[in-house]
Amino acid sequence: MTLAPETTDLKVELALDGDWFAVCDLSMLLPGRGVAALLPDGRQAAIFRDRSGELFAVDNRDPFTGAAVLSRGLTGTHQGRPFVASPLLKQRFDLASGQCLDDEEVQVATYKVRTA
Amino acid sequence: MSTDTPTIVLVGHGMVGQRFLEALAERGLTATHRVVVLCEEPRPAYDRVQLTSYFSGKTPEDLSMTDLRFIEDHGIELRVGDPAETIDREARRVTARSGLVVDYDVLVLATGSYPFVPPVPNKDAEGCFVYRTIEDLLAIEEYAKKATTGAVVGGGLLGLEAAGALKGLGLTSHIVEFAPRLMPVQVDEGGGAALLRTIEEMGLSVHTGVGTQEIVVGEDGAVTGMKLSDGSELSTDLVVFSAGVRPRDQLARDCGLTVGERGGIAVDEQCRTVNDPHVFAIGECALAADGRVYGLVAPGYEQAETAAATIAADEAAFTGADLSTKLKLLGVDVASFGDAHGTAEDCLDVVYSDSRAGLYKKLVIGRDGTLLGGILVGDAEAYGTLKAFTGSVPPVAPEALVLPAGAGAPAQLGPSALPDDAIICSCHNVSKGTIRGAVTDHQCTTVPEVKKCTKAGTGCGSCVKVLGQLVTAELEASGVEVDKGLCGCFSQTREELYEIVLALRINTYQDLLDRHGREEARGGNGCEICKPAVGSIIASLAPTIGASGYVLDGEQAALQDTNDHFLANLQKNGSYSVVPRIPGGEIAPEKLIVIGEIARDFGLYTKITGGQRIDMFGARVEQLPLIWARLVDAGFESGHAYGKSLRTVKSCVGQTWCRYGVQDSVRMAIDLELRYRGLRSPHKLKSAVSGCQRECAEAQSKDFGVIATANGWNLYVGGNGGATPRHADLLAQDLSDAELVRLIDRFLMFYIRTADRLERTSTWLERIPGGLEHVRDVVVHDSLGICDELEKLMQAHVAHYRDEWAETINDPEKLARFVSFVNAPDTPDPVVAFVPERDQMKPDLPLLSIGMRPAEDVLEGSAQR
Ligand code: SRM
Ligand SMILES: Cc1cc2nc3c(=O)[nH]c(=O)nc-3n(C[C@H](O)[C@H](O)[C@H](O)COP(=O)(O)OP(=O)(O)OC[C@H]3O[C@@H](n4cnc5c(N)ncnc54)[C@H](O)[C@@H]3O)c2cc1C
Ligand code: SF4
Ligand code: FES
Fold first, then answer.
1. Over the stretch B89-125, which tens digit does the pLDDT of each residue have?
2. Which stretches make up the Rieske domain (chain A) (predicted)?
3. Interface contact flag, A72 B565, Cβ < 8 Å
4. What's the ipTM?
């Protein structure tokens, strides 16, 4: 997570095995919504930008249904923690830690994300 | 195989077995012992009590009670599909079917019961079933596909559940009960009569006082009927035996443990077998120290706790339990609790009976006024409270407790009158004090939190209502004002937010949140509850408050639920469905052909929906714009199947073709659909227009339904299909076209203004003070003087309507969002895959850890759940 200044030609990058992997232009991210990115190893990441410009990335796969849809969920803040709610069965996931807020035993992977 | 750590072997992984494991873990015994579980069924423990809910859509995974992580974390060796075959008590050794041999220090038998099948000829014929396991249900479901009639032997609690399930599978259902009344164990004669009436009204045939003498089979050996003891014959394709259960004590018999005369492994108050201190028996297989075999789960749980405590060398005893029950199915309220039959000496009855209304309520009262038990048929509202009062003297007179509300009942007895030690949830033995503690000491503020914290309400569910009342009462008592706010971000209700948005012309969510949100939510990101709700209010009022009428414009795009965001319905594998509008269900052949061509070209699954139009399933997100470009080109527009907005206005063919029709119902349906299309509302809106009283369009099950009369149109409102069906109420009669439209305009706008989020017109009409009369006053007689405004709001909506799909395909910036991956827009999501089925295709979703259903072919072609 980094605070992203509002500049149009900035790239959003994810940390993968120590390297930074460029995903898209920052302008592709609508505050409050996500996008999905395909990673080199075939995994998928869901990347979000909140109202203040902060960026988050978690695994795109919804662990409850198996569908790769978390990028299409609604985001929000719960007790100060940013979250995304799965669009399928509505479980919420903390965007910073990947922890499911509705089932303490479930977690999704998170990625470091920055703009450059 | 002997190790240094002592070994506990559990035989049977049913509901009680699982609870026993949890009790072991809670006491730390799983850390100090090796725990081996022999489980006969092909799946770990599941919720047998809720078994029947499989037929209302629960999957075997939903029913599971076993968290595999729990099993793993506690190092429990769970052997699924491997029953115990022999016990050598001398050597303290169990041998399983797989050949596994385990030496035990403690052996716990939790083998449950088996369904009793009366020894009638051909009882094992093809088409005969029992009702105990998930496998039984899968087999019944499969067989029922070829059957039209089913009969249940046994009219007890389970038999009625089974009969209801058969009816739900579309079979004509019979119940054959040997006793002179239904549910003979729970209800008395009066209750049986009220119950019989209700059950028969539901279309089930009941035969009481007759026994089954023989199952009749056809040449192929499959069931064709049954011979009854009164000489009659009942033809049926399928028989379910539900004539009681017997303890599974064979293992115990074989190794010389004492069993009761009528079965059941004899145990003492610590649940230890009377012969062998190393062997325990719990649950339905045990004959408790009070001489009873309990067929309910709550006493079994208590026995599980007792056995675990005893093994941990703590003090505990099981001395007996309560037999309260409530029927969970069939839409009939039946409950019995405590000493329902009044067996206590000198007890008295208080009975209220109204056989016309199918009501029967009886309370059994002791000489000193103590409530001992009771029976409730037809209305079991008070079950939770009464059950909890059992054993104490209620604070109001007993007759007040059985009289229906309004019929002179002086006081309504709420759960707040209960003493702290009253048991609210008998499945998990949770007292009122514990629930109050959850609210006061553990800061639980919602029913789900209290359920999680105390386990109350997570068994049969019959106490959830009382639980809700208690939580609210407790919150109020502790000075917490019960928050009626929309969510954690807004303390206002949806109705209040609507008024704020309209009055102050607020047209962005952020503005509303920052100015009117809760202090702590201002400046934040909101949440998944208020975003779509506010998005909907803004969309409903868009032209009036100066917001864009296009839901993907600017900030509005971020507020929409995923379906609205992609203007399509998300399916279970991440693909989407596409539903073009077909107003009134009328469609010209050319347009039908276009739909066919598009579906073929994109390989979509097509289905005629229940709303008189066509759904195309399986579109990947990047295909949506291509599909819609072709649809728009052919003159189609969005059907808003994804939105909380107008869905369809169904029509019957009406006067134009039908010999009975008195008005042109198709034209009116099309007019209404085109007028209200795109109107965002608190929940979806459905409508229908029928050409005469025969009502082929089912208008009375719609939010607003119209039926033609010789003089015009009758308008019905507040109808609903779905989970809680409701017949619509007549709002006004013999309206002209213009009057009809004007009334609907007002009605819809009044609903949009005052309803809660996700509240259909049916629930809204039942909730708002004054109900239908009030709504009629407002929209017909203009009692609030707002009709003018309501009509103007609707006119603004109609004038500004634009098709959102046409708008989207012409906007490159919006189209850029319809990609699988932001960095690989042309690569399809590999998770979205399909396999063929019946000449079309269906999603092929790699199931995750929940994939415990048996062989796929068992389920092939069965109803989608
Ligand atoms: C496609 C269809 C079933 C079919 O194959 O026929 C269908 C499919 C869905 N229905 Fe339905 N309903 C369909 C007709 C109905 C009907 C019959 C009717 O409209 O005449 C009903 C009962 C009538 C009623 O609503 O009162 C119906 C009662 C429901 C309910 C329960 C509503 C309630 O008030 O209890 C839901 C759940 C909800 O809305 O919360 C639901 C929800 C759904 C959803 C949206 C569930 C979801 O969120 O994924 C399904 C999505 C379909 C999709 O992806 O395209 N569907 N659904 C029907 C589409 C009709 C159409 O052309 O728009
Ligand atoms: C349709 C239905 C509805 C019900 N509704 C209610 C209700 O509303 N309220 C209520 O209180 N109760 C209800 N019950 C009863 C409740 O389900 C039982 O009381 C409860 O399941 C008993 O738990 P148990 O663990 O003793 O037995 P079970 O849950 O039957 O578990 C016993 C397990 O042991 C296994 N087993 C047997 N022999 C062996 C062996 N040799 N080796 C290994 N495993 C073995 C069996 O296969 C089974 O899986 C209902 C039952 C049914 C069928
Ligand atoms: S409702 Fe009346 S007019 Fe319409 S199809 Fe049925 S019988 Fe004909
Ligand atoms: S009484 Fe069964 S869940 Fe509470």
1. 999 999 999 999 999 999 999 999 999 998 899 999 9
2. 21-116
3. yes
4. 0.68
On whether the CB atoms of residues B205 and B166 are closer than 8 A, the answer is: no
Q: List, chain by chain if needed, residues with CB within 6 Å of any ligand 1 atom.
A: B 569, 571, 577, 579, 607, 609-611, 613, 615, 641, 647-648, 684, 686, 720-723, 760
Torsion of the alpha carbons at B111, B113, B118 and B124, rounded to the nearest 10? -50
Nearest CB neighbour to A33, from listed B524, B527, B557? B557
Instruction: Check if B41 has its Cβ closer than 6 Å to any atom of ligand 2.
Output: yes
Q: Is B291 exposed, middle or buried (0-12, 13-18, 19+ CB in 10 A)?
A: exposed
Distance of CA B781 to the CA centre of its chain: 39
pTM: 0.55
A69 CA: distance to closest CA in chain B (Å)? 6
Amino acid at B133: T
DSSP assigned state of B481: P
Q: Is B83 in the pocket of ligand 2 (CB under 6 A)?
A: yes
Residue with the smallest CA separation from ligand 3 atom 2 is B692
Residue B94's alpha-carbon distances to B41, B90, B144, B254, in angstroms, are 18, 11, 40, 12
Average pLDDT over residues B321-339: 70
Are B713 and B668 in contact, with CB atoms under 8 Å apart?
yes
Backbone angles phi, psi at B668, to 5 degrees: -65, -40
Angle at Cα A73 formed by Cα A71 and Cα A77, nearest 5°?
110
Domain A11-115 has CATH 1.20.950.20: no
Q: Are strands B238-241 and B128-130 parallel, antiparallel or unpaired?
A: parallel
B398-407, B429-438, B810-819: least confident range: B398-407
Q: Is A43 in contact with B827 (CB distance < 8 Å)?
A: no
Cβ of B108 less than 6 Å from ligand 2: no
